[in-house]
Design a protein that fits this description.
Layout (H helix, E strand, L loop, with lengths): L1 H61 L1
């Protein structure tokens, strides 16, 4: 009977650790996606600004 109790406690402890690791993984995944979105927005802004500057340069050169 004590072996079964030990097994149940071991399983509960292991399951708690697994759930904790899963929660940490989800949290880090969301953080990574937020950082990725920030980089994508910065990249789009960079290219939009670059295109606007190139358009202005061409317009000024043709004037």
């Amino acid at each position: 009977m004590t072996d079964n109790k030990f097994g149940a406690e071991f399983f509960k402890k292991t399951a708690d650790e697994v759930f904790g690791l899963q929660a940490k993984w989800v949290e880090q995944s969301f953080k990574a996606m937020d950082e990725y979105n920030t980089l994508v927005k910065a990249n789009v802004k960079y290219w939009a600004d670059l295109q606007a500057d190139a358009r202005k340069l061409v317009t000024d050169a043709l004037s």
